[in-house]
Specification:
Layout lengths: L3 E11 L2 E12 L3 E5 L6 H9 L6 E5 L5 E4 L11 H6 L7 H10 L15 H14 L4 E5 L7 H14 L4 E5 L3 H6 L3 E4 H10 L1
Parallel strand pairs: 3-7, 3-8, 5-6, 6-7
Antiparallel strand pairs: 1-2, 1-4
Length: about 200
């Protein structure tokens, strides 16, 4: 059984813009890996490639678990529906109790019935994260999941995320080294890694 996700010679361009070039790396299964680097260095593109949301131009990826959940940079919520309904969508039997428990753990226990269009940006992020955590995937892709949260909410949300993803594979995209270190696991400076690959 593979213990890593294997990336070999991966390349991806958008039109004339080469975003990822000949990238080779291994990502551990059952652990958190934080992808860091400046905006535009390819973090989100790599996550999309790993998740199978877009095809590579060249290279191979193997070992990615089949059951995936994704928190996108955009919340992608059903804005007219309540926080509770947004989370129940992904649960077997639309488990109301489980959805309510998750939202309460993320500090939204008093907001279950409000339509998410009325929520602040930080509240929407927590609903999007709750939905991903509820799905009980084997691998989670979290693209800046804590943006827009105040310090107290961020600390509580990081703690909850750690508890609920223990033993799972997490690919975590962030600009914030403190966040990366808070989630533990490894940190990959993707910008520096790609720069080295291009120099070869």
């Amino acid at each position: 059984m593979n213990e890593t996700i294997s990336v070999r010679g991966l390349s991806k361009s958008y039109g004339e813009k080469r975003v990822i070039s000949s990238l080779t790396l291994d990502l551990p299964l059952g652990a958190v890996t934080a992808l860091m680097g400046p905006s535009g260095c390819g973090k989100t593109t790599l996550a999309f490639l790993l998740a199978g949301l877009i095809p590579p131009d060249a290279g191979e990826i193997s070992g990615v678990p089949e059951k995936k959940a994704f928190v996108f940079q955009e919340d992608r919520l059903a804005e007219e529906f309540s926080a509770l309904s947004n989370v129940r969508f992904v649960l077997p039997g639309r488990d109301r109790k489980r959805a309510a428990e998750l939202l309460a753990r993320l500090g939204l226990g008093e907001e279950l019935s409000r339509p998410v269009r009325e929520f602040s940006g930080g509240m929407k992020r927590r609903v999007a994260l709750a939905r991903a955590l509820a799905y009980d995937a084997d691998i989670l892709f979290l693209d800046e999941p804590f943006k827009g949260l105040d310090e107290k909410s961020r600390e509580e949300t990081v703690r909850c995320t750690l508890e609920l993803t223990k033993g799972k594979t997490v690919i975590f995209i962030t600009h914030d080294r403190e966040e990366a270190e808070a989630l533990g696991g490894g940190v990959i400076d993707l910008g520096a890694l790609l720069a080295r690959e291009q120099e070869r």
